[in-house]
Structure prediction request, 90 residues.
Amino acid sequence: MSQAHVIYMAKEALGTAIIVGGPLLLVSLLVGLVVSIFQAMTQIQEQTLTFIPKILSIALILLFMGPWMLNIMTSYTINLFTELATYARY
Prediction:
């Protein structure tokens, strides 16, 4: 296995992780920002107030985008095992 193959596989792994984890992180960031603005406007300084909206939003995103994320991960895994079989011949 050459260095180019390893770099390609690492690039594909990082790209897949960003594609799959990106929507969850973006929604969590937006919900946290909205809750923080709400806390600043109402002067409610409760630290646990951000957890419930974030958990609910992440659960909704996983419910709606879960099949798409699973499809991306499945295609990546199939591609990885196929390429590993061809790289093992070297």
Q: What stands out?
A: Residues 3-42 form the longest helix (40 residues). The mean pLDDT is 89. Helices lie at 3-42, 51-87.
